[in-house]
Design brief:
Length: about 280
């Protein structure tokens, strides 16, 4: 008898074909879409325009987008809107600069020293628990009814989130990095530059974004108190005369300022923290 040897052959891939590879399931959000953050506001604008054109919205309560644009163009032409915008930008810039500086310095003092933390952190937490707008009557008595108290309130609104997030980032720095810096014999200045600042930057930018938004939110209220110019004053006067289109002009400008400033901070954050590999990047 002739022995017959049977072999089990693995089916070979045909010529020009690649072997089948099991696709891995992607868990990341995917590639960043260009101008993705504008999709939401544009959708709201489209729905607003469609509802206005269909007559669903009461034009006396919510004017159509084209009515608001005509009002904005008229206010800008006669010089009212440009003056109010510049005044609001100046107030927000002064208060933001003071609050940002105070928040960073206090966070560094509290995060790098136990003595500084004992003296500063509890006071800031107490300040955070007190409604900032509730301090307005007291600040008017201390600083008067002019511009100073408005800038001071904006500075407080800004410095609290900047301090909290920067201090939390400092406290969250891995202690092994500190031990490594001590082994390497780094000076205090080199330690701050090479370990503290890179470790605190992510939290700092979160606080910076909250502070930018807070400066605009505080400005809306403050410009309705003994002010003669500014977007808040413009909206307050429009309320007295029932001009909802003017109120919407002010709200839209505040919204645009907030979106643009937040986007600018995010852009700087991506550039500065380009060394990180995160879901957002």
């Amino acid at each position: 008898m002739t022995a017959v040897t049977t072999t089990t052959a693995v089916p070979a891939a045909r010529a020009g074909e690649l072997p089948e590879v099991r696709r891995r399931r992607r868990l990341s959000p995917g590639r960043r879409l260009p101008a993705a953050r504008l999709a939401g506001p544009l959708l709201v604008l489209v729905l607003w325009a469609a509802a206005s054109a269909a007559g669903t919205l009461d034009t006396s309560a919510v004017p159509a987008p084209w009515t608001v644009l005509r009002t904005a163009a008229h206010l800008w032409t006669d010089g009212t809107l440009s003056t109010d915008v510049l005044t609001s930008l100046k107030r927000a810039a002064y208060g933001f600069a003071i609050g940002l500086t105070a928040g960073v310095l206090l966070a560094l003092a509290a995060g790098l020293s136990r003595t500084g933390e004992a003296l500063i952190d509890g006071t800031v937490q107490l300040n955070r628990a007190i409604p900032t707008l509730g301090l307005i009557p007291l600040f008017i008595l201390w600083l008067g009814i002019g511009e100073t108290f408005k800038i001071a309130i904006i500075a407080i609104v800004v410095y609290v989130p900047v301090y909290l997030n920067t201090h939390a980032a400092l406290a969250g720095i891995d202690s092994r990095y500190v031990e490594l810096a001590e082994v390497q014999g780094l000076s205090r200045l080199a330690f701050v530059r090479q370990v503290v600042i890179p470790g605190a930057l992510p939290g700092f930018f979160v606080g910076l974004r909250l502070g930018v938004t807070g400066s605009w939110l505080g400005l809306v209220v403050l410009e309705q108190i003994n002010a003669t110019s500014g977007l808040g004053y413009l909206m307050f006067q429009a309320q007295n005369y029932g001009q909802t289109d003017v109120i919407l002009v002010g709200l839209l400008i505040y919204g645009v300022f907030g979106l643009v400033s937040d986007s600018a901070v995010r852009l700087v954050e991506r550039r500065v923290l380009s060394w990180r590999r995160t879901l957002s990047s």
